[in-house]
Amino acid sequence: MSEEIPGAEQPPPQAGPSEAAQAAFEACARLVLAGRYEEALTATEEAAGLFRERTAGSRPADREAAAALTYVLVLRCEALSKLGRWDECLRTASEAVDLGRGQAVTAPFTAPLGATLLGLGTALWGLGRPQEAVAVTRESVDLHRQLARADHAFRPQLANALSQLGVVLSRLGRHAEALDVTKESVSLYRRLVAADQAVHTHGLAQAVNNLARRQSARNQHRRALRSIQEAVALYRRLAAANPAVHRRDLAMALGNAARMHNGRAESLAAVAEAVAILEELDRAEPGVHGGLFADSLSLHAAALADLGRFREAAEVTTRAVAMMREQAALNPVARRGDLGVALAFHARVRAEAGLDLAEGLAAATEAVALMRGLAAEIPALYASSLAEVVALESRLRAAVPRGDAP
């Protein structure tokens, strides 16, 4: 949860729909950009109804309205993804892709199809189906390359698609490929920011945050630290200007900074700030930020443990595991890895502290079961994690009296 597939970059719909439908589309876009996702769902439902009325029948004049409808569905998919409603997101994205494919041979449907493919990739990723997500996201990248070559106005969409492709490739352990496409995304965003800083800074921040993760996965630790420091600085500026939208992003980047700092005190400071932000956000919107919050709590526990503050760390991991179980209950397939990591932290802290060892053993055993399944599916990503948690389980089993072992 320390990175997220970037949100869609939508160009405005083509001319043609009625003023009411156009106004409805723009209202949807504003709500999504403002992070008001529940309101956006209502607005996108109303806008989709208006555009469907315009597309009824077979008049050529309705083609532009059909193209605009695909963008409304992309906006709806993005709102659903932010709320963790992945099954609905998949249905919405699939409808949008079907609409786009049915008309893609001629303008104006090529651009909407590229956007809908990104939405479908987001849904597949959220449902724990990264192989399928790679295929449709790569298709979106290819479409946006064609569009950007013909018209530089589509460079933001290409940069966004490349950043998303880097995320889904990384989830398959294909770190070298992921690093290459993420570098290309960052390069494009830097040129876009040079031309229009206000519009493209958020895209650059997302891409640089993801670049830090890609560099870390390739053991380029100094570069990763520089990248995440840049991402944090960018998100601080964005959060200062629009806290309602960007404080969550800042918390995510701070969590990554905690992973990448060499100093233990620096790591603790970064993740403590992230947790404080998420505590406040969770009070305002209970459950909405659960995955990221649980991940940040696990990082907080690890930072405390690294400083020898094991009892504090144990309390934090208990809360992190409880929150991650809630997330896994909502989305069991996609959250298996996150729950496994939270359980491994829970067990590790107890092993290091020498307290609640039976509980730690139970957590390690559960983590091993989760990691075995993941390592069988994606060995490049999970084999090393499985080996670590198996060793931890063995250590705890040797330390727990036979009568107390689960």
From TrEMBL:
Which stretches of sequence are listed as region Disordered? 1-20
One Pfam family linked to the record? TPR_12
Family annotation (SUPFAM superfamilies): TPR-like
- Recorded superkingdom: Bacteria
Please name the SMART domains in this protein's record.
TPR
Name it. Answer: Tetratricopeptide repeat protein
